[in-house]
Amino acid sequence: MRNFFCWLILSILGFTLVTACNHNASQNISSASMPAAECRIVKHTMGESCVPINPQRVVTLSLSTLGNVLALGVQPIGTTNEVHHKGKLTSVKDQTERIKLIGLSQPNLEAILLLKPDLIIGVDWFKPIYPLLSKIAPTVLGELYYPTWEKHLSFVAEALGKQETEKALWDRYYQRIEQLKLALGTRYQNKKISFIYVGSGQISIDTRNSFAGSIISDALLQRAASQNIDAPYGSVKISLEELEKADGDILFVTTFSSGGNEFLKEKQQEPLWKNLKAVKENHVYYVEFMSWGATNMLGTDAVIDDLYKYLVNTP
Predict the structure, then answer these.
(1) Residue 9 lies in a domain
(2) Which domain covers residue 152, as residue numbers?
(3) Do residue 139 and residue 230 come from a single domain?
(4) Residue 288 located in a structural domain
(5) Residue 14 in domain
(6) How far apart are CA 49 and CA 58, in angstroms?
(7) Which residues contact 60 (CB under 8 A, 6 or more apart)?
(8) Distance (Å, whole) CA 224 – CA 147
(9) Which of 47, 107, 146, 270 stands 20 to 30 A from 180 (CA)?
C-alpha cells in the first residue's frame, strides 16, 4: 500500500509537470517554432520577440506598416486596411495586387492563420489581440503616433533587418527635397500653403507636424497661420463657420470616406467657399488621400511629385 501511494504521488507530479510545460510552450509558440540561431531579438511595445532573420511571409497590420514594408523592398502576403479608401491600399498602383486583405481595422485571425506567415508586423492598436497573434507567428507591434511617422519606418526596418535600406531611402528622400527646393526657387517665398481633408460632413485642417506637413516643411514652404501649429494627430477639425482657417495662397484638398466628395461639392456652392482667396485666384489643387495621408515612406514620392506638378510645373 505504501509503494502504491508513492507511485500515485509521483504520477500526479509528473502529470502536473508535463501540463505546465505544454502550457508554457503554447504561450511561447512564436519563439519556439524556430531555432535561436535562425532568429534575432526585436524589442517592441509588447516586450521582445525572436523574429526570422530573413522573413519570407510577412503580414502587416496597418496601412502605414504596409507602405513602409513595401518601400523597404519586401512584398507582404496579407494586410489590414483601416482606411478603405476607394478600395486602395497604397498610393502606388500595381504593388498590392497579390496582397490578401485580411480585415478592415480588426484583422481576421483565421485568415492570417491560413496565410501561414513567418512574421507579423503591426502597430500598438492591436495590443488586446497580441497573445493570439503571437501564437500564429512571431509578432512585433510598434508605436504609431501619426506626427512621428518616421519612427515607425525605423521600427519596421529593424523588424525586417533592413536598416541599410532605410538609410538609402532617407538619402533619396532628402536628395529629392533638395532638388524640389532648387526648382521652387523664391517663387513661394511669401506664399502660404494650406492643406485640408474633407470627409462626410466634416472638414479638417492639416498641421505642420502631420505626414504631409513634414514634407511641406522640409521643402521650406510656409503654412497658413491657422495650420502653422502642432496637433496630436496632425490635423484639427473645423466648423463650416471657421472655413477661413482653410484658406491660403495655395490650397491643397483631399477627400476621404464615401461621402467626402459629395460633401465637398455641396460646400463649393456656398459663399464661404467661393470667398476663399485660393478659390478666387484659381489656386486650389485636388490631391490623392492615399498619398497625402500615407504616413509611410512609400507616400513621400507621391507628395513630392504633386508639389512639383502644382507648384513648379503649373503656370
Answers:
(1) no
(2) 29-161
(3) no
(4) yes
(5) no
(6) 15
(7) 66, 69, 76, 78, 79, 80, 120, 121, 122
(8) 18
(9) 146
CA separation for the pair 310, 216 (Å, rounded)? 13
Spatial neighbors of 98 by CB under 8 A, at least 6 apart, are: 75, 77
Starting at the earlier edge strand, list the strands of the sheet with 78-79: 100-101, 78-79, 58-60, 119-123, 139-142
Cell 490650397 -> residue: 251
Cβ(197)–Cβ(204) below 8 Å:
yes
Structurally, how many domains does the chain consist of?
2
The reported pLDDT for the residue numbered 115 is 97
CA quadruple 202, 205, 209, 215: dihedral sign: positive
Do 118 and 212 have their domain in common?
Answer: no
Rounded to 5 degrees, φ, ψ at 221 are: -90, 145
Q: Of 97, 126, 161, which residue sits at a domain end?
A: 161
Which helix H or strand E contains 174, and what residues bound it? helix 163-184
Q: Which residue type does 184 have?
A: L
Mark the ranges of the chain whose per-residue pLDDT is less than 50. Answer: 1-32
- pLDDT tens digits along 180-193: 999 999 999 999 99
- The pTM of this model reads 0.84
The CB density around residue 51, as the number of other CB atoms within 10 Å, is: 27
Half-sphere exposure of 192 (CA within 13 A, CB side): 15
22 assigned to some structural domain: no
Interacting residues of 111 by C-beta distance below 8 A, sequence separation 6+: 78, 100, 102, 103
Q: Quickly tell me which residue has 516643411 as its cell.
A: 217
Place of cell 513630392: 304
